[in-house]
Structures are given as C-alpha cells and as structure tokens.
Amino acid sequence: MMQLVVFVLCLVSFVCLMLGMPKHYAFVTQTTLGYSQQRVLRGAGWLVLLLAAWVAVWQWPWDEGLVVWLGWLSVVGVAQVFCLPYWPWQAKAKKRLSSRKAKVEVTEDNEATVSTPGRPFWKPAAIAGCMALLLVTVVWQYRQTPVKPLLREGAYHGQIGPWAYTLAEIHTDAPEVEALQLGIKEFLIRFCDSCNAEISIAYLKVREPRTLRSAGMSFSGNRERYVELAIPPKATLDDGLWLTVVSKQGEVFQQRLEFEQISPAMAEFIRNRS
Predict the structure, then answer these.
(1) CA 183, CA 176: separation in Å to the nearest integer?
(2) Are 73 and 136 part of one and the same domain?
(3) Higher per-residue pLDDT: 54 or 32
(4) Are residues 159 and 252 in the same domain?
C-alpha cells in the first residue's frame, strides 16, 4: 500500500513540474501559462516530491526508502516521456502535420494521387515492451525489499508500565558467536509516539537485573531504538529476557519476556548450549 502512495506522490509531483513549463503547459491544455500559475505549479511539484521522499524514508530505513523513492521516480519519469507524445492533442497536431507533408504522386495518365506517411507499427510495441520491462523490474525490486522487523507478523507487542511497545529481532537467524563465546543478537524496540517524550532510557538483558546498574544493554535511538544484546555462555531458558524502562521522572519498570515469544532462533540457540 505504501508503495502505491509513493508512486502516486511521485506521479503528481512530476505532472506539476511538467505543467510548470510554459511549453508543456500549452501542449497539454492548449492555453497560455501565467506567471503566478507557473510559480504555484513548480512549488507544488517540489513540495510533493519532498513529501514522497519523506514518506519513503518514514516507512522504510532511510537507505531502503531512498532506493524505493528513486525507483518510482525513474518509473514515473520514463512513463511520462513515453506517454506525453500520445496525448490526445498531439494526435490532432500530428494529423495536421501529416496532411501538410502529404506526398502528391502523378501517374502516367496525369492523375494526381495523395499518399500520407503512416505511423511505424513498431513504436507502440517498443513503448509497451519498455513499460512492461519497467513494471517487471519494479515488482521484482518490491518483492526483494525485506519487511521491516517491527512490521513482521512475529514482532512482539506488549505493555510495560503505562507505555505500549513493539519489540522484534532484526534478523531471524541464530545469534552470532563472537569472542568469549558470547552470542550476539540485535533487537529493535519502538514505543508509542506519545511515550517517547516520557521515557528516558530502556535496557534489555538476559537474566533478571539486580540493580539499575546491571540492567543490561541500553537501547540507542529515538523513534526506533536499537540494541546489540550479549548472550552469556551459561544462559538458560529459565533466565528469561528482561526489559527495563526508566521514565524521565525516575520511575523504573521491569518486565520478564520469554525467549520463545521474542526470538525462537535465540531460544533454540540457548537450548542447544545448555
């Protein structure tokens, strides 16, 4: 659905920018473009173009969002270039031009015959082929774009204290084993939009923390918070995964989470090591 929103915004922005050019405006509308109309159309085009970029970056990580935005810009630009010559007004202009360029042939009986050049049959087929290729490329790119971790079906939705949150593992495979036989697993958490203004910091840890100093690894970020969690070599499933959230007023909330709920791959990793 968001792909369609980005596409429509890119299309609207390109149409506004095109109509902001006097030559194209006269070609499409058969009227003259005023100076105030030109400024409004160009301004609206740039604003909608920036809005499309913002929607893409908001929906996906900024690097993936820019790729999606640039991809739809390419599709819309090429489609506009190919479709503009076949605008209905252009057909009448071509007809008048063809009539002026009609060839007059004189036969042996001194009879004049008029022949007009026809449109090459391969042009519509070539345009249709290019558009089909672009459509296949966009569909393939869309299917290859991974779903954001917090939007997966397996993401965990919970409530800690007065705040709702969504917690998910970034990768669904088993944790990577690094130095000291520590398993490393990456997570993202996102609190409700109104909650961020009330939360000071959040931690994630294997085993129950005894004090706030041992609350675990702290999440970094503002909207989507990231943490790289270390799994101790002797961790068991009974230890649980503990989420600690501290409000800006100093209130501390803790919650125990089951490994199976958050990351089945992490639970299997701990089960095989114990």
Answers:
(1) 5
(2) yes
(3) 54
(4) yes
